[in-house]
Amino acid sequence: MDLETLRIFEAVAAELSVTRAAARLGRAPSNVTTRIQQLEAELGAELFIRLGKRITLSTAGQRFLTYAQRLLALEDEARQAVGGSGGGSLRIGSMESTAASRLPVPLAAFNRAHPATRLEVSTGPSGPLVDEVRDGRLDCAFVALPAELENEPALAEMGLQSAPVWEESLLLLLPPADAEATVPAELGTRTLAAFRPGCTYRAMAEQRLGIVAGSEWRIQELGSYHAMVAAVSAGACVTLLPRSVLDVSRVSDDLATLEMGTVSTRLLWRCGYETPAFQAFARQFLGEA
Questions:
Q1: What is the three-class DSSP state of 190?
Q2: Does 183 lie in the same domain as 157?
Q3: What is the number of helices (H) and of strands (E) in the chain?
């Protein structure tokens, strides 16, 4: 097993097509097929399920992909650390809200200042992002930490550290029927629009609205703030979101809000992760590496 084979496997796993992976890698499809077959023989497991011309990752392939990504990331980190270069790649995770309202301008500025560094940005709830940074699938992430990880000792036990970047004001966006409500107890609506479990904002909303098993509240899981704002506008639910997201969204004037406190958006990374690319990135957001 070598790193080039891992790159081929990662490309096929991403494209779920030998032909597209070969084009992406600049290789002949037959070469890609051969390398995958050799890897499967070496591992003693089928990494892909082949159904005619379609392929999908097998259970073993899904597990192996995590390790392949970590090994390739470690190689890139080693090259940067030894070479002292500001190039390489930086895999950044972010909450959907931060990616939409906070990151476009500073990421563009970083790209202009460090064009040799390839930025890869993905979004998700804070819980999964913490796990991905911890196991090396991401180099850093912008998250709102869950209550159990808000202190540095708890993070240090996981091999992680963080620093605050932005303080977010949280608002509960209300449908027109609840425009006169001044506290959550006065709400007539009993549906919360939120991301899937693992989202810190969802957990905060559940706690502050008293949403527990057996309560009259229900949760409608949606995949974007645009969908959540639309659902609130339609009178179907309430949703918790940062003021920064509301500021960049087109929201009807007849939608009222309730103040729900503040929370820090933090930059999270692994202890000891000090590549030149990350140090430059951290300086831009934190003022120091």
A1: coil
A2: no
A3: 12, 10
The range of the structural domain enclosing residue 41 comes to 3-68
Alpha-carbon 65 to chain mean position: 18
222 found inside a domain: yes
CATH of the domain at 193: 3.40.190.10
Token digits of residue 198: 């693992």
How many folded domains does the chain comprise? 3
| Cβ neighbours of residue 253 closer than 8 Å, sequence gap 6 or more | none
Question: Averaged in consecutive runs of 10 residues, what is the pLDDT profile of the chain (289 residues)?
Answer: 90 91 92 93 92 88 88 78 68 94 94 91 94 89 89 87 95 94 93 94 94 88 92 94 89 86 94 87 81
91 with 151, same domain: the answer is: yes
* Position 75 in a domain: no
Characterize the bridge pairing of strands 48-51 and 54-57: antiparallel
State which of 68, 92, 116 marks the end of a domain: 68
Measured CA to CA in angstroms, residue 102 lies from 23, 235, 243, 248 at distances of 35, 28, 11, 10
Neighbours of 39 (CB within 10 A): 20
Specify whether 223 is located in the same domain as 273: no
d(CA 1, CA 39): 7
Q: Is residue 74 part of a domain?
A: no
Q: Do β-strands 48-51 and 140-143 pair in parallel, antiparallel, or remain unpaired?
A: unpaired
283 close to 164: Cβ distance less than 8 angstroms: no
| One-letter amino acid of 126 | S
The DSSP secondary structure of 194-221, one letter per residue, reads E-STT-HHHHHHHHHHT--TTSS-EEEE
Which pLDDT does position 289 carry in this prediction?
41
Question: For residue range 235-247, what is the model confidence (pLDDT) as tens digits?
Answer: 989 999 999 998 8
Q: Is 76 inside a domain boundary?
A: no
